[in-house]
Amino acid sequence: MTEPNTDGNRYFDFELPNVGAGSETLHSATLAAEHEYVLAVLLRNHYCPLCRELVRELAGRYDEFATRGTAVVPVLPDIRERALVWHRRYELPFPMLADPAADVVTGDRRETAPDEFETFEPFQRTIPSLPGVALLECVDDSLKIVSRHGGPNPQDVPTIDSLLRRLDAQRDSDVAEGPEGIRADT
After folding, report:
1. pTM
2. Is 39 exposed, middle or buried (0-12, 13-18, 19+ CB in 10 A)?
């Protein structure tokens, strides 16, 4: 769920089942307390080869994110058991969340697509095609939405190098601003 706060910034709060590293349930406040940033990786579905490759690449380069104070958190729009397959198969060093849309069934018809998120649905609406990512800044015990990345085609997912450059640029801009948003170099 995203909610605007009084100063116009957007914050995001969640609590979801986790099958990866950490506790069985992951709350956004826990991430915010332990990291500077969170890279939420929204996956297309359980069978998506691009998503699987992206998660493997992130796992292989996780240390580069960790040294930047950033948690990597893939989110699968599927049931916990399928997310667990990913964790076991790829031995992920980070959390792996399950966030399937609640099924709404009318008669014999399913009203939600199988590849839709419940909690992360606001991000899914703003990213043209999955996989995609959302960069969240940890502020106190909340996650502030910084940016979303993804293109019109599934192949447009940002590379690991471009994600690291985006993270470095965000970190540099945070350092350059003083406590009241005044840039130190002005």
Report:
1. 0.83
2. buried
